[in-house]
Structures are given as structure tokens and as C-alpha cells.
Amino acid sequence: MIKTVASVGLPVDEVLEIKKNRIKPDTKIEGKKKRISIVTGIHGDELEGQFVCFEIIRRIREEKDKLTGIVDIYPAMNPLGIDSITRGIPGFDLDMNRLFPGNGDGDMTEYLASQIVKDVEGSDACIDIHASNIYLTEIPQIRINEQHKEQLIPLAMKTNVDFIWVHGASTVLESTFAHSLNSRGVPTLVVEMGVGMRITKAYCNQLVDGIFNLMREMGIWQGETITPRKPIISQNPDDVSYLNASVSGIFVPNVKHWEHLKKGDQIGSIIDPLRGEVLDQILSPVDGILFTIREYPVVDEGSLMGRLLRDEALKV
Amino acid sequence: MKKKIIYEIKALYRDNFRITGYEFGSGKKSVCVVGSIRGNEIQQLYTCSQLVKRLKKLEEEGKLVKGHKILVIPSINPYSMNIKKRFWSTDNTDINRMFPGYNLGETTQRIAAGVFEVIKDYQYGMQFASFYMPGNFTPHIRMMKAGYENVELAKEFGMPYVVLRNTRPYDTTTLNYNWQIWETNAFSIYTTTTAEVDKESAGTAIRSILNFLSKEGIVDYCGHEGYISRVVEDTDMVPVRTRVAGIFESEVKVGDEVLKGQLLARVIDPYEGEVSETLIAPIDGIVFFQHNDPLTYADTAVFKLMKGR
Q1: Contact yes or no for A93 and B87 at CB 8 A
Q2: What digits encode the pLDDT tens for the residues B50-107?
Q3: Hey, which residues does A71 pair with through a beta bridge?
Q4: Contact A11 B11 (CB under 8 A)
Q5: Is the Cβ pair A8, B97 closer than 8 Å?
Q6: Would strands A125-130 and A188-194 be described as parallel, antiparallel, or unpaired?
Q7: In b/e form, how buried is each residue of B80-104, taking b as 16+ CB within 10 angstroms?
Q8: What residue segments make up the domains of chain B, in order of their start?
Q9: Which positions ≥6 away from B12 have C-beta within 8 Å?
Q10: Which residue of B has its CA nearest to A277?
């Protein structure tokens, strides 16, 4: 059942509507049904979640009799952004994920944020699917604010991701969708995977397998599910080594994503096409696994080219 | 006056990214003034340029008090200004959400760190700021209630208003907030416009800064004394919101006194020209903020009215 979560008139002959699809069992289920919300598209340039939403609905339809709870699919929190290839909310140049929990009496953007929170509130779990940005490709991972780790790590373990990254609390992140929901008692997992403006079907299917597994554990799905892969969990900030460009230029990688590297291995180069020169050779600073790799070749001094998870973290 | 490069990044094809500062006097780091941080802050850039011109003249006339250093940075982000983009030219990040910065981090974190390293030890920090919504303001000094704000000092500018507002989560990465944490007395100065030059409010801002510097014994300036500032909380202002979207047609301008029941604006149907909504002043007050885009969304605070005393 398609439902409009929030609606607001735009200046010229258009209504902005945020919609969801609520999928319920066809037959009556005794007792209170559990509910999971799948949310994506807060950033209009992150599209991996689009296929995840489609695939969840497709698989449920194939075995509808196995559904014993409620699945709410919110594929486009920022519909104007998705349809205009804009990361933020077009017209406002605002990052929607810095507006939560919003304000029902506030401006349009705050109103939309508040309606979304209101609608998702009451879910037994929520998955907020992001796709990095247009610059970096990420291995399927879940990012957890350390404030909520006790509750969220066990849930994240069921979602078939490769990596769980517990990060420090930051005041800025208090205005994110996930923080607002977690603070309101809705366990919300933030998935980062793939890259902006693209769909990586293998990652999407991996996550969908995991979401069905989580749904089974929650009593929402009675069908067959996979045994989730065991993710690497990093809780120590020193586990992660960042590769930032030392000079501006064109970054050309020599390695594959999720590749294990030894200290000193060549990751890539930064080149100057005008002069035909190599400006910098990027060597691995540690022994570790490359879980983030730059997709977009142009780099400024400081641009992130990759992140490595040190071997020490893998041994834990 | 000494012109200095505060921070520089070598680019691949563009000219180097440079942040340029103008230093007046020498000695104690007394005052730092920052102009535009975002690419659309033309008024903020213009105001700074006029301040540089004015300080240069005062210095030539020997009117800068010895022992004080004044640093003016007209733009922290010339790259975005030159391509008419509001945020950072490549990744669209906002430098004013990156303070205090990180010198080993991403580009805008490095820029913030590079600038902050130079400007963090000043006694007074002033930033020509802009609002995220399109609109004009009555000139004022804005301060965040971060626990370090000194309202009495803010009154020394002689601006019509000093506005206090509560901090929000994103504020913790702004220049103003971090200046305060590093024990600089920080003030955000709002003139009327952002993307257009408004000479009158730029002049008001420059006079207010010179008033302040004069009262603090940093310059010998004898100009217009300015106003006895009224201190108000941001929450004391009364927003007037649109119910519907359409073409916005205002009947008043910032600074106008309005009476309860007075027509403030109309929202016009963009196809049929009929009036979809009339916006009426809910109180007697002064127009403190006014939306200045010809189109408006629904539920938008197109006016903020300051209550009469």
C-alpha cells in the first residue's frame, strides 16, 4: 500500500511528496506484528538503496505467505534530490541529514524531516541505506555511533555486511536521521556501501540477503535466509589508516577494492596529464585491508583516496 | 599594510588556491576580521574590501594605535566565488562546517585548519556572516550562546541590534563557535544582503567595527556613534510564514516599522495571477528579516518581525 508520508506544494504546478510502501501479511497474524523500516535516498546522489528497496519488495511478493510482520519501504526521502542528481535538498543547498529531528512548525525542509521521523517512529528496527558519495567506493558496512553500540552491534551482525565501524560520538552527528531515531528508541543501522550515482548489484543483493536474515530473526519473515557472513568489527579509531592526497592531480589506482596490502605496496599514483609526470606514488602506510577506495579521479590536496583497516584490527 | 598569503594549495589546472590577508599594525594580535567563507557571499567580500581601504587610510594618517595587530581576510574561499558556487569547488563541502579543521584531513578540513592556525589567537574575531535562506536582514551583531559570549562588548559596535541565539549541533564546527572555544571574543556581523552589494549596510558595518575598535583603544576614530543596541533573543522574533507556495510580492522592506494587521506581502498564483494568500503583520514591530527570492515555498518564514519595545 503506497502512502504519502509528507506533502508540500512547490511554487510552480508541482507537489513534493515523500512516499512509502507498506507491505503487510495477506492473512491475519495473531499478536502485535513487528515492523521494520527500510529508508534510503536522504542524499539524492546515493542510489544503491534504490535497488535494495526494489529487490526486497520483489522477494516478498514471490513468497508473500512467508511474511509475518510489517515492512515499510521509504525509497526516496529526498525525492527532488534523486530526480535532479543533487546530494542535498535542491533549492536550499542543505544536507538533509543535518536537519533531523526537524520541526513540524518550521520551514519546509524542517517540516519534511519531522514528518519522516514521526512516520518511522514506532518501528522495531530501521535501516538507513547510504551509498558513500560520488568520490569513494565503500565495502558494505554498517557505521554505528558508540553511544548506541551495545544495542546496535548485535543487530548489525545479522545484516551480512563485511564490516562494522563503531565511531566516536560527535555533536554534529546529532542532527542525523539515525541519531534522531536511535534517541527515540528505534534501533537504526546506517549502511554505507558502493558509490554515489551508481548501483552495485552484488552489494545490493548481499545487503538484501542480510535484511531478510534480520527480518527472520525479528519474526517478520519465515522464509529461507542465508547464514550471514561474520563482519570485521572495528571500535578503535587507530584501526583505520587514512590516505589523503599530498598534491592535487589525477588519482589512478593500481589495486582492487577490499584487497589485502602490505606496508609499502603501491596503491596508485597521482599524475599530472599536462606535464606527463607522476606527482606522487601512493604506498600503503600499514599492513591492512583497503575498505574504501577513491572512484573519482580528480583530487585536491587533502582529498581522501582510501581507507585501510589495519591487520591488528583483523586479528581481534 | 602588509598583504600576506595565509594559506595556499597548488591545483592541477587552476591557478593556486590562495587565502590572502591584510595586516595592519604590529604587536598584540588584537582583531581579526573574516569576510566571505561561501562563494555567494559577495556583500561580505565587498564590506571587507571597504574595510581594508578604510584601515589603509587610517594607517597612513597614523590613527592606528601602536601595539595592536589587525588582520583582515576578505575571502577564505575565492575558488568557489570565481565559479559562482556556494560551497567548495570539488566536493561541495562548506568550509564553515570544518572548524577548527584538521591539517591531515580532507581539503576543506585542511583549509579550515590552515586559516584557524593563523587567526585563533586574536582577542577579537569578527565574521561577516550570511543566512542559509535567501533574504535581507536589518544589520545586527549575532552571537551564539556558547557560554563565552560577552553581550556588553557586542553593544560597543553600536549596531541597532545584538541577537542572541542558542547553539545547534552543527554550530560546533563553525568559525564563530571555535573562536569562542579558543577564547576569542567572536561576533558575527550581518549586513543587509548576501549575493548583492548593499553599500548602505556595508557602510554601517564598517562604522560599527571602527566604533568598536575606537572604544577598545585600537584605532583613533571619531565617526558616527551608532545606536544604543537593543539585545534580543532570536526566539523573541515572530516569524510570518507562507501557507502556500508561489510568486512572492512584498509590500515592505527590512527595517520598516509595521503595525498589527498591516499587509506585508502577497503570494501570487504563478499561472493565473490571482492572490493565493495575503500575509498580514501579527504584531506591531520592525521587519528584521525579509525573504528576497521572487518565488517562495510553502511553510516558509518569509518575514521575521522584531516586537516593538
Answers
A1: yes
A2: 999 999 999 999 999 999 999 999 999 999 999 999 999 999 999 999 999 999 999 9
A3: A23, A36
A4: no
A5: no
A6: parallel
A7: bbeeebbbbbbbbbbbbbbbbbeee
A8: 2-233, 237-307
A9: A248, A249, A250, A272, A274, A298
A10: B12
**Which residue is listed with cell 508473500?**
A64
Does the domain spanning B237-307 belong to CATH 3.40.50.150?
no
Which residue of chain A is at minimal alpha-carbon distance from B267? A11
- How does pLDDT run across B109-122, given as a tens digit for each residue? 999 999 999 999 99
pLDDT in tens, B136-169: 999 999 998 888 889 999 999 999 999 999 988 8
Q: Which three cell numbers stand for residue A251?
A: 588519482
Which residue in B107, B132, B169 is closest to A175 by CB distance? B169
Domains detected in chain A: 2-233 (3.40.630.10), 237-315 (2.40.50.100)
- The reply to whether residue A13 touches residue B11, judged by beta carbons under 8 angstroms, is no
Grid cell listed for B224: 558616527
Q: In terms of CA atoms, which chain A residue is nearest residue B38?
A: A93
| Higher per-residue pLDDT: B270 or B221 | B270
**Res A105: pLDDT:** 83
Distance from CA of A242 to the nearest CA of B (A): 8
CB contacts of B83 in chain A (<8 Å) are: none
What superfamily does domain B2-233 belong to in CATH? Zn peptidases (3.40.630.10)
Share of chain B above pLDDT 70, in %: 100
Answer whether A122 touches B (CB < 8 Å): no
User: Considering the entire predicted model, what is its pTM?
Assistant: 0.91
